């Protein structure tokens, strides 16, 4: 059997969100460091080669994201701890309480607020994505994992898996959320473009639409974003994006494909949608592929609105492998600790081809 090269980093374990705050209620959260350790254990046991990430500079990252967002994430927890809020109200994680929406500003310039608790909402669009002491190191470590994976593909590896944590596909150019901080898949696509691939496709199989990746490439003709996900129109995150009529804009018209699916979708219909996406990638003429590999569409995932099986994930990988493209698979969601490793492993088995 062909096996993937796996890239990982110890830094990815440093992010400990401690909670998510949803509709005002603090819950323990599910995006835990153990997700990464479980995946790594399973992949090592299955015989995949494992490599540590190498440090990379900020060049690609700062072209994908607004440099002010990157600087905010790098510094905000230190500013929060120094602000007195932890002593005042007992909150040691950065949580926004006010978001400056377009409706609030009504045309006024978006200023950088002085108070750190207000700045928190300038760059984050939900209350579920808390920043703690190791969040920056982990998110930046995930970027190093991703860039090391792209380097390995450039060196001739046909399939490299980036064990990136925290995930990234909900981050736009200048706003983070959805348990994501920096958009690893977008960094991979941009780095592949920089490495000489004229056209790159991003296929997102996470249960949720990757609104961040879509937004980052929405105006561009050189990167196709294609996603199958639970229908945001039926009330699912990210609610405001992921609809079928979002097909790209300007030069990017036609280079965005959303296939929203009903809650409860099983393998058959999910794989039909995946097949449509694979055909679109072929027609697009991509010379490299990024897979946003979320395994939270699996039936046993606590976050899952979809009912995909292990066999479904393996067959999805095999269908994408038929494209014959050098592939970087980047970890996104997936929260069931007992099966997250095996779901990733079977998908890589499919992606590695016969
Ligand atoms: Zn997800």
Keywords summarizing the entry:
single chain; 354 residues; 12 helices; 14% strand; binds zinc ion
Approximate helicity band: 25-40%
- What pattern of helices and strands is seen along the backbone? EEEHEHHHHHHEHEHEEHEHEH
Looking at the chains present, what oligomeric state does this protein adopt?
single chain
Number of strands: 10
Query: Which ions and ligands are bound to the chains?
Result: zinc ion
Q: In what order do the strands lie side by side in the largest sheet?
A: 4-1-5-10-9-6-7-8
Rg measurement, Å: 19 Å
Distance between the termini: 7 Å
- Number of helix segments? 12
Q: Could you describe the largest sheet, including whether it forms a barrel? A: 8 strands, parallel
How big a fraction of the residues is strand? Answer: 5-15%
Question: Shape, please?
Answer: globular
Q: Which structural class is indicated by helix and strand composition?
A: alpha/beta
Please, what is the average pLDDT?
Answer: 97
Low-confidence stretches are: none
Layout: helices, strands, pairs:
Layout (H helix, E strand, L loop, with lengths): L4 E4 L11 E3 L2 E3 L5 H13 L3 E4 L6 H6 L2 H16 L2 H5 L12 H4 L10 H8 L11 H20 L4 E4 L21 H11 L5 E5 L6 H7 L5 E8 L25 E6 L5 H18 L3 E6 L16 H12 L5 E5 L8 H12 L3
Parallel strand pairs: 1-4, 1-5, 5-10, 6-7, 6-9, 7-8, 9-10
Antiparallel strand pairs: 2-3
């Amino acid at each position: 059997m062909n096996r993937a090269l796996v890239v990982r980093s110890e830094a990815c374990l440093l992010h400990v969100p401690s909670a998510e705050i949803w509709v005002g209620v603090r819950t323990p959260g599910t995006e835990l460091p153990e997700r990464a350790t479980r995946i790594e254990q399973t992949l090592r046991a299955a015989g995949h080669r494992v490599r540590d990430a190498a440090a990379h500079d900020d060049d690609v990252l700062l072209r994908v994201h607004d440099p002010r967002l990157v600087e905010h994430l790098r510094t905000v927890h230190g500013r929060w701890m120094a602000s007195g809020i932890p002593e005042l109200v007992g909150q040691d994680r950065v949580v926004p309480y006010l978001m400056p929406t377009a409706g609030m500003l009504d045309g006024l310039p978006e200023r950088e607020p002085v108070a750190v608790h207000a700045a928190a909402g300038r760059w984050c669009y939900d209350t579920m994505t808390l920043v703690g002491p190791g969040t920056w190191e982990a998110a930046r470590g995930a970027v190093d994992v991703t860039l090391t994976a792209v380097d390995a593909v450039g060196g001739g590896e046909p399939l490299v898996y980036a064990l990136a944590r925290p995930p990234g596909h909900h981050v736009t150019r200048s706003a983070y959320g959805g348990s994501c901080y920096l958009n690893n898949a977008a960094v991979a696509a941009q780095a592949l473009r920089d490495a000489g691939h004229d056209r790159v496709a991003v296929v997102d199989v996470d249960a949720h639409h990757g609104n961040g990746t879509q937004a980052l490439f929405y105006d561009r003709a050189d990167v196709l974003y294609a996603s199958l996900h639970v229908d945001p129109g039926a009330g699912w995150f990210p609610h405001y994006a992921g609809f079928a009529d979002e097909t790209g804009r300007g030069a990017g018209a036609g280079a965005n494909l959303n296939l929203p699916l009903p809650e409860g979708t099983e393998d058959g219909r999910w794989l039909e949608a995946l097949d449509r996406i694979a055909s679109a990638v072929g027609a697009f003429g991509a010379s490299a592929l990024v897979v946003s590999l979320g395994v939270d569409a699996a039936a046993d995932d606590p976050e899952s609105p979809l009912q995909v099986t292990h066999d479904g994930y393996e067959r999805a990988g095999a269908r994408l492998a038929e494209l014959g493209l050098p592939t970087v698979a980047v970890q996104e969601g997936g929260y069931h600790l007992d099966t997250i490793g095996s779901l990733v492993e079977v998908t890589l088995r499919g992606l590695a081809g016969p």
